[in-house]
Amino acid sequence: MSAIVVYVSIHHKNTEKIAKAIAEVLNAKLVKPWKVKPEELLSYDLIGFGSGIYYWKHHRALFKLINSLPEVKGKKAFIFSTAGINVPFINHRKLRKALREKGFEIVGEFSCKGWDTNGWLEKIGGINKGHPDEGDIERAKRFAEKMRQLEGGPQNGRG
User: Fold this and answer.
1) What pLDDT digit, counting tens, does each position of 112-158 carry?
2) CATH class of this structure's domain 3-152
3) Who contacts 4 (Cβ-Cβ below 8 Å, separation ≥6)?
4) Containing H/E element for 68?
């Protein structure tokens, strides 16, 4: 099984740390949504989508990519995020809905705290400074190991 991890990480590279940890375990290609063509994306068996959370949802570039995809009946996907306010049930709901509407089977979700200095938080130095930390990264690796074990897991990533 081949895997690809599509991510956006803007401010403090919180999500990039998590994306790299997941991709390492999966031996997956790591890409930004604006650097991958929909047809390339669909050549993978397992696709991860993740970003920081912006006003209770993932980055708009992920939605733009997903909206450009044809229906993908049963293609396996997972969701991940970092967030100042880490409430994955709420933070992942719009991405979860968009993926399901395209026909993806969501096989897992991961979320952890991320250093957040957005808006007024900048004036107080932000929240969750130091996150994701080593514990968060280890949890992301354990999550990726579970994804790898799906149907025997990715044997070799592409790229």
Assistant:
1) 988 677 777 778 776 678 789 999 999 999 999 999 998 555 443 33
2) alpha beta
3) 28, 29, 30, 31, 36, 41, 44, 46, 47, 48, 157, 158, 159
4) none
Do 78 and 108 meet the contact criterion of CB atoms below 8 Å apart? yes
- Tell me the mean pLDDT in the region 104-108: 97
- Specify the pTM: 0.91
d(CA 115, CA 121): 10
48 with 4: CB under 8 angstroms? Answer: yes
124: Cβ–Cβ under 8 A, 6 or more apart, which residues?
none
Tell me the residue length of the chain: 159
> 90-114 burial string, b = 16+ CB within 10 Å, else e?
ebbeebbebbeebebeeebbbbbbb
| Rounded distance between C-alpha atoms, residue 21 and residue 59, angstroms | 20
Placement of tokens 């979700």 in the chain:
109
Question: Which residues are CB-contacts of 94 (< 8 A; sequence separation ≥ 6)?
Answer: 56, 57, 58, 63
3-state secondary structure of 60: helix
Other C-beta atoms lying within 10 Å of the C-beta of residue 75: 18
